[in-house]
Design brief:
It is a single chain. This protein is an alpha/beta fold. The chain has 2 domains: 228 residues, Aspartate Aminotransferase, domain 2, CATH 3.40.640.10; 119 residues, no CATH class. It is 30% helix and 14% strand. The protein is built from 11 helices and 15 strands. The strands form 4 sheets. The chain has a 7-stranded mixed β-sheet with strand order 1-9-8-5-4-2-3, with helices on both faces. Strand 4, helix 6 and strand 5 form a beta-alpha-beta unit.
Length: 375
């Protein structure tokens, strides 16, 4: 029996191979590796797909978050409210622009930031709220947007795991001043290498993003800002354009797989499958379930003195996922701490707000999610 892997990229590639090789040949023939026609084509297709005003293709999801923060002119002395249950880049980018991440605890059912707790974390220094649409399910954008309007704050969405997800029928990444996406190979719209996107409905903000992604140039060799090299390569853009055409189909396949997991695991003692809010259309970048009986980890995660001591454990995967033929990757124990023990360079980030519910980190597990035929 062929082993079941977490994500079978080879099988996925087989479905696109002919079109991908054609696009590669087109780029090679044109020799336009930077800023080629495929960049504008991809951006236009994404504007149509997400029904947003502007799409700016960039070099990675991390750079998308960094670029959005820079374009919003967030910097030293500012505070940005976000979730501690996320990939390191979310808080890391806030720190890189000189601002302070302020963590608010998560909703125990969706794992997203608990919007009801955000108001208590707002201070005169707060400039933005940065919700993360974790695992492909949107955060509570109604409450977040209402708070942002009330306090005159930017909303920058980390939608790196939510390409194609919807909230009340509207695409993730189209609610705030900016949406930030990742095209890392394992994402639902995965590229051939790193890649990312910033979306916005604000024309001036979009123009600033385009300038900042190219070292702040307003025209050749004239630099109005200090930006960076955040450009997406033409080859990667062309390949993403090919795969974008089937994003809806692949997201639907992930939802079907998730429903099957719900059916198989939902009645098991000690296992809780993902809770999806009725107004959300989740795209299951990751199918994360909670398992009771988590063990204590011996590792003590580094922490500033202001954070209460806590040990983050690991959860054994359900027996149904630990059978011969299922690779270790999908069922390996999770030892990922939340953000606050890891932002050692920014201890002030932890003095206000909450550390996340520890059991979420002790007891989550992820099964395979390939969408190739027969998977």
């Amino acid at each position: 029996m062929k082993p079941i892997t977490m994500l079978d990229l080879k099988a996925e590639f087989a479905q696109f191979e002919g079109d991908v090789r054609r696009v590669i040949d087109e780029v090679l023939d044109a020799q336009a590796f930077i800023g080629g026609a495929q960049i504008a084509q991809l951006e236009g297709s994404l504007v149509d797909a997400f029904d947003c005003g502007h799409a700016i293709a960039v070099s990675s999801g991390t750079d998308a978050i960094l670029l959005a923060l820079m374009a919003a002119e967030i910097g030293p002395g500012d505070e940005v409210i976000t979730t501690p249950f996320t990939f390191f880049a979310t808080a890391g980018c806030i720190h890189r622009v000189g601002a302070k991440p302020v963590f608010v605890d998560i909703d125990p059912e969706t794992f997203n930031i608990d919007a009801a707790q955000i108001a208590a974390a707002i201070t005169p220094r707060t400039r933005a709220i940065l919700p993360v649409h974790l695992f492909g399910q949107c955060a509570d954008m109604d409450e977040i947007l209402a708070l942002a309007r009330r306090h005159d704050l930017h909303v920058i969405e980390d939608a790196c795991q939510a390409v194609g997800a919807r909230y009340r029928g509207r695409c993730a990444g189209t609610f705030g001043i900016a949406g930030c996406f990742s095209f890392y190979p394992t994402k639902n719209l995965g590229g051939f290498g790193e890649g990312g996107l910033v979306t916005t409905g604000d024309a001036d903000f979009a123009q600033r993003c385009r300038q900042l992604r190219n070292h702040g140039q307003t025209e050749t060799y004239l630099h109005a800002y200090i930006g960076g090299n955040f450009r997406l390569d033409t080859l990667k853009a062309g390949i993403l354009g090919v795969k974008l055409a089937r994003l809806g189909e692949f997201n639907a396949a992930r939802r079907a797989h998730a429903a099957r997991y719900d059916e198989m695991l939902g009645d098991l003692d000690g296992v809780r499958t993902p809770v999806v809010r009725p107004h959300n259309e989740m795209i299951y970048h990751s199918i994360r379930s909670l398992c009771a009986g988590a063990t204590r980890s011996r590792r003590r995660w580094p922490r500033p003195a202001s954070v209460p001591h806590s040990l983050f454990g690991s959860a054994p995967s359900p027996t149904v996922l630990r059978r011969p033929g299922i690779s270790r990757g999908p069922t390996a124990r999770q030892r990922r701490p939340p953000m606050h023990p890891r932002a050692a360079d920014s201890p002030d980030a932890h003095r206000r707000g909450h550390h996340p519910r520890r059991r979420m980190h002790q007891s989550s597990t992820t099964p395979p999610r390939s969408v190739a035929p027969g998977r």
